[in-house]
From TrEMBL:
Residues 30-56 form the Zinc finger C2H2 LYAR-type domain. Residues 136-158 are annotated as: Disordered. This is Cell growth-regulating nucleolar protein, putative. GO terms for molecular function: DNA binding; zinc ion binding. Keywords: Metal-binding, Nucleus, Repeat, Zinc, Zinc-finger. It comes from the Eukaryota. Pfam families: zf-LYAR. It is found in: Nucleus. Its main location: nucleus. One of its GO terms (biological process) is negative regulation of transcription by RNA polymerase II. GO terms for cellular component: nucleolus.
Length: 234
């Protein structure tokens, strides 16, 4: 699992990055392995990095055969992390512990053995609920091809509401929702990348503008999350 170094100097594994950013309000993270810098929510797409062998052997490194099983597990793990990070409920303590693991099993029997040993959880009702939560991440959405991803990145800025809708529709969760801070960071990052604000515009100058553009119908009662209305999801 990839780890990042925050602007504050702390090293964080990916599942803990979102909470760290919300607490520290840091604007960027750098990958420990490749040193690439990610602003706002850009880190979320960085699921796998170069191996230790590739890092230290440089041009002498010769990649082996691609593992389909490894790729499937990576996609599953990424989907599970997203579901767990957005969970709020009575199992939050167990969920926080699960976020520290990068090898969560994909089969129920193996998962139950895993949480018995790792979480010391033996209550069958809670075990079942935890499995149902994790299982909601399956089937994992196949990663987009590099051509499709590049095409999406090349699309011009479409205006605040269109970009907000675009960000929410990309969510794997059924309710197409996300924390407002995460939505703000993702949309503002794209806004600045596309140069829609002109040269010299700072992120902090745009943050409040972006939040004022979120339609009221998209706000939850607690206003902690932004959700796409059901009629807009198609």
């Amino acid at each position: 699992m990839v780890s990042f170094v925050c602007a504050c100097g702390e090293t964080i594994r990916k599942p803990k990055v979102r909470n760290h950013l919300q607490q520290r309000h840091c604007e960027y993270m750098s990958c420990v392995d490749c040193n690439q810098t990610f602003y706002g929510e850009e880190y979320s797409s960085h699921n796998k990095c170069i191996s230790e062998a590739e890092k230290y052997m440089g041009k002498l490194y010769k990649p082996g055969s691609t593992s389909t099983e490894g790729s499937k597990q990576d996609r599953w793990q990424s989907s599970v992390m997203e579901v767990l990070e957005n969970y709020e409920g009575p199992l939050r303590g167990y969920v926080d512990t699960l976020l520290g693991y990068d090898n969560i099993p994909r089969k129920e029997k193996a998962f139950n053995n895993f949480i018995k040993n790792s979480l010391k959880l033996h209550n069958p009702v809670e075990m079942k609920k935890l499995w149902q939560l994790v299982q909601s991440a399956a089937p994992a959405t196949p990663p987009p091809s590099s051509n499709n991803k590049r095409a999406a990145e090349d699309e011009p800025w479409g205006g605040w509401e269109e970009e907000i809708n675009r960000a929410l529709k990309k969510r794997r969760t059924a309710e197409k929702s996300m924390p407002w801070k995460q939505l703000r960071d993702e949309v503002v990052t794209r806004y600045l990348k596309k140069g829609a604000a002109g040269k010299g515009c700072r992120r902090e100058d745009v943050n409040d503008i972006m939040l004022s553009k979120i339609p009221k119908a998209y706000l939850s009662k607690s206003k902690n999350k932004v959700s796409l209305p059901s009629e807009e999801e198609e």
